[in-house]
Amino acid sequence: MASSAIRKHSASLIFFHGSGETGQILIDRVRYLLGRDFNFAHINVVYPTAPLQEYTPLKGQLSKVWFDRNAVDIADPIGKQNMTKGYAVAQQLIQYEVTHGIPLNRIIVGGFSMGGALALHTGYHLTEGLAGVFTHSSFLYRNSVVFESLRNRKFTKETLPELRMFHGQNDTLVPPEWGRETSESLAKLGVSGTFTPLEDTLHVLRRKSLLDIEKWILTKLPPL
């Protein structure tokens, strides 16, 4: 697990990478785009690495992915069992922070691409009362258990984290229409937040969106 420098902190950010990558790759990407790490004196930033598992879109080859799926397609009938390993990592990470004195309402989860999908599952299915969720170039499958949890009112309106979604308008791997559909579906089920399209952007992180995310995180998790 990669993390920012260890220091006394009063809040935590867990940032999940995209499929086939690692936490260190995500750290390096943030540093390249910003010219520095995230500027949080009081927030510990954790960049976990996904477990190595068979990945069907790569014909069963082993890859560092948060979950398996049949295809990158919003209509893919992904099952709950596909999420088991990713869920285990997310729950362990949050439990570690709570055990070390960080309350749930001082934790934000986010992610890029597949990592963003795991962040949505974490904030709206697995864990009640987080401070916020953000995604970049991500979507939920139409039959996602996340929608089921929200329809069944597993969370109260007061414990639903605020959401920030960003998506490249020229993304050909995950079409922006999928991200917008996910955003609108979550909004209908009580999730408040924003969906921000990024001009001239493919399936990549951008400096502008990272700066926006950084500013938003500081409003959600101010110093104590």
From TrEMBL:
Residues 4-218 form the Phospholipase/carboxylesterase/thioesterase domain. Keywords: Hydrolase. InterPro entries: AB_hydrolase_fold (IPR029058), LYPA1-2/EST-like (IPR050565), PLipase/COase/thioEstase (IPR003140). GO terms for molecular function: carboxylic ester hydrolase activity; palmitoyl-(protein) hydrolase activity. It holds the Pfam family Abhydrolase_2. GO terms for cellular component: cytoplasm. Transmembrane segments: none annotated. It comes from the Eukaryota. Its EC number is 3.1.2.22. Belongs to the AB hydrolase superfamily. AB hydrolase 2 family. PANTHER family: LYSOPHOSPHOLIPASE-LIKE PROTEIN 1, LYSOPHOSPHOLIPASE-RELATED. This is palmitoyl-protein hydrolase.
